[in-house]
Amino acid sequence: MAEADREHGAGVETRELVVPRVSEAERAAALDDRDDREFYASQWQLMRRRFFRHKVAVGATVVLGMLYLAALFSPFLSPHDPVLRSLAYKEAPPMVVRWFAEGRLRGPFVYPLTSELDRETYENVYQEDRAQRYPVKLFVRGFEYKLLGLFASDLHLFGTGVEGVPVHLFGTDALGRDVFSRTLYGAQISLSVGLVGVAISFFLGILIGGVAGFFGGTVDEVVQRLIEIIIGIPSLPLWMGLSAALPTGWPVLKMYFAITVIVSLIGWTSLARVVRGKFLSLREEDFVVAAKLAGRRDLPTIFLHMVPSFLSHIIASLTLAIPSMILAETALSFLGLGMQPPAMSWGVLLKAAQNVHSIALAPWLMIPGLFVIITVLAFNFVGDGLRDAADPYASH
Amino acid sequence: MVDYLIRRFMNMLLALIVISFLSFVIIQLPPGDYLTSYITRLRAQGELVSEEMVASLTLQYGLDKSFMGQYWKWITNFVQGDMGQSFRYQTPVNELVWERIGLTLVISTSSLIFIWVVAFPVGIYVAVRQYSPGDYVATFFSFIGLAVPNFMLALVLMYVSFRYLRIDVGGLFSLQYQDAPWSFGKMIDLLGHLWIPTIVLGSAGTAGLVRIMRANLLDELRKLYVITARAKGLTENRIVMKYPVRVALNPFISTVGWTLPQLISGATITAVVLNLPTTGPLLIDALLAQDMFLAGSFIMLLSILTVIGTLISDLLLIVIDPRIRFEKKAN
Predict the structure, then answer these.
(1) Which pLDDT band, with edges at 50, 70 and 90, does B64 fall under?
(2) For residue A191, how far is the Cα from the chain centroid?
(3) Do B268 and A237 make contact, defined as CB atoms within 8 angstroms?
(4) Which of A234, A271, B26, B29 could be stapled to A241 by a disulfide with Cβ–Cβ 3.0 to 4.6 Å?
(5) What integer pLDDT is reported at residue A66 of this predicted model?
(6) Which site among B24, B108, B155, B200 would you substitute to test the A interface, given the most A Cβ atoms closer than 10 Å to its Cβ?
(7) Dihedral through CA A128, CA A129, CA A130, CA A131, nearest 10?
């Protein structure tokens, strides 16, 4: 931001210098060119304006917001209990919500599926039973849950409201559990792991990187070497080794935090690099020297002057670090070394789609992977947008 | 220059020490020492384990010593090529790892070559034709390539080829070559199977490198010497290829440093999905069965591979880039 302030200041200066030499018309044109508000907008206002100009990033932000809302309200949005097994619907394909029957609009409805065993392949073959239509209603009563762990309810956004007639939008898994509901529940772990992991990495990165950059010398040298070494180690085998050492009997919450810590043990390095670089370059800046000359001690100098000036960069780097955390958890759980089955995360769900046989028969089991991709893409776009917005030298 | 080389080697040595320490910590991490679990397993199989045998095993693994003592014993043995005993397979770890490490190396190298061969022309094209349809297509694919995890790509490729081409793309060898000794036929067979893991592993790296190449080359193309060259009437091809590309070439060499760890990581998980006879599946098995000497040795060897790869890339960078060469000399 300090850099931006300087640029902003420079803008005012040139304007004043240039004005006497140009004609009145040219001056008006120059002012029209550059939005007048730019000259007295605060740094954060400038950043927000630049970010909103980045249409893809704004779109991605909306997508992310929807995903996180869906994770928060997953019990309400889920038509079925994610752990409820169903014998009649094992590896059933996604059901189609239909609108028209007999050439007329009949509102949203589903046909229940009936299964038949194929005598040759011994697979269940599902067919729609067109004898009766079951309308899909909004706000139906279903299984009981506690929203946000506080409000008990049995209200669900949609469903047939008829016992034994499910709506499986994404089909079911080998035990007959609803993949749509499980994907929504899985979002809770998969989406939050990135945030918690980044928070831990952020703490480690800013502490270690800040110390290295501010004090320099031997400390810096040691930290630099350490970071180089950690970056040079292939992370997945190391994560696997560490998480394999976790006791299998741990409760979900404990396991969750252990996995997050393991993932961020390596993730802090890139953040520490960014922080260190910023500290090094800012240390020599005039405003830091001025603060020192004015008698500020080290810590206030760091937190009142230096940190605010690169906070925007840090936020951008943090956003870009989240996807790798999400991918790490997904990979570990997918391999069976991360979260374990009673817990639901996208990686755990994808474990069902690990071999050719199951994905050939039930390709819809790969749907949670689609959500991983969408989330990672969205975070990348938002991070890019933030980085461009935070860069004071970006072209407007 | 010599100073730089010495420092570089010292760094590598330091990295190896830290890595070996980490690997040993992983070996030690599971609750209870490995000997206890080994003896429990033997007893569970109905074997008689005498007190003397326990004592001799304790001595063999140095379990009577402190943590550092045990580490020292393990690392000295490791350097001499004795990586301990796999409890699960009842054979020295040595016999299990080499072929798998070799195949991992083959896959990683072929992916690296794939990354270079694709990213180089594409990177140049999108920089020279900035904002052309080709640029947008490449940008789109590079975002996708970075966002799709390796194993998802492997799953999708497997599904598509199974569903529409009716072939099973898993494995590295056809059935008749699976356990056959190495021969010319087996080599050809390997090449026929190698392309899927290569594409799967190379996708993310290619995407990243195209982005870097594009950014670097765009920076170079704006410089004054390019305008000078154009003013002198050089053909556009010559202008681009003669200087800017050579400058922008650096990331191709230096990326070995960051792509290699990623490739090895990716190879681990992709191998599980595609059922490749590389380190991945065996490492998973070893970790799940807490066969820690095997797992620790794998992690150690994979890391050593990476460190050596990075060293090679640094040395190549000195050879290729005179700026680095002379800067080091001047210091």
Answers:
(1) low
(2) 5
(3) yes
(4) B26
(5) 92
(6) B155
(7) -170
What value does the mean pLDDT take over residues B96-100? 79
Output the furthest CA–CA distance in chain A (Å, rounded). Answer: 92
Provide mean pLDDT across the span A344-371. Answer: 82
What is the token pair recorded at B186? Answer: 């087996």
Check the CA dihedral B7-B8-B13-B16 and report its sign.
Answer: positive
Q: How far apart are CA A223 and CA A243, in angstroms?
A: 25
- Here the tokens at position B184 are 């010319």
d(CA B301, CA B160): 34
Q: Contact A204/A104 with Cβ under 8 angstroms?
A: no
- Using an 8 Å CB-CB cutoff, list chain A residues near B257: 232
The rounded distance, in Å, linking the Cα atoms of A289 and A342 is 56
Count of CA atoms in the C-beta half-sphere (13 A) of B43: 11
Using the predicted structure, report yes or no on whether residue B330 has a pLDDT greater than 70: no
Q: Which chain A residues touch B304 with a CB distance below 8 Å?
A: none
Distances (CA, A) of A11 to A1, A6, A32, A72, A140: 15, 9, 14, 45, 60
Contact A237 B147 (CB under 8 A): no
Residues 6+ apart with CB under 8 A from A30: A15, A18, A22
The more confidently predicted of residues A252 and A287 is: A287
B168 to A335: CB separation less than 8 angstroms, yes or no: no
Beta strands in A8-165 (DSSP E): 98-101, 104-110, 113-117, 124-128, 134-135, 137-147, 151-159
- Whether A63 contacts chain B with CB within 8 A: no
**Tokens 């936020």 belong to which residue?**
A315
B267-290 mean pLDDT = 80
Q: Which residues of B touch A373 (CB under 8 A)?
A: 144, 147-149, 152
Q: Indicate the residue type of A312.
A: S
**A267 φ, ψ (degrees, to nearest 5):** -65, -20
- Strand bridging mode A134-135 / A104-110: antiparallel
- The single residue listed with the structure tokens 């922008």 is B248
- Pick A114 or B180 by higher pLDDT: A114
Identity of the amino acid at A182: R
Crossing angle between the packed helical segments B250-274 and B279-288, to the nearest 10 degrees? 60
- Phi, psi values for residue A117, rounded to 5°: -85, 125
Which residue's structure tokens are 């349809």? B133
Q: Which two tokens stand for residue B286?
A: 């070893």
> Could you give the 3-state DSSP secondary structure of residue A54?
coil
Q: Does A346 have pLDDT greater than 70? A: yes
**Per-residue tokens: A141:** 């009563």
Q: Are A159 and A142 a contacting pair, CB within 8 Å?
A: yes
Q: What is the model's pLDDT at position A282?
A: 79
A-B contacts at Cβ under 8 angstroms: 134
Q: What is the pTM of this model?
A: 0.78
pLDDT for the residue numbered A279 = 78
Predicted ipTM of the assembly: 0.76
Judge whether A47 and A392 are in contact, CB under 8 Å.
no
User: Whose CA is closest to A375, among A192, A185, A168?
Assistant: A192
In chain A, which among 220-259 make CB contacts under 8 A with chain B? 225-226, 228-229, 231-238, 240-242, 244-245, 247
Cβ–Cβ under 8 Å, residues B158 and A356: yes
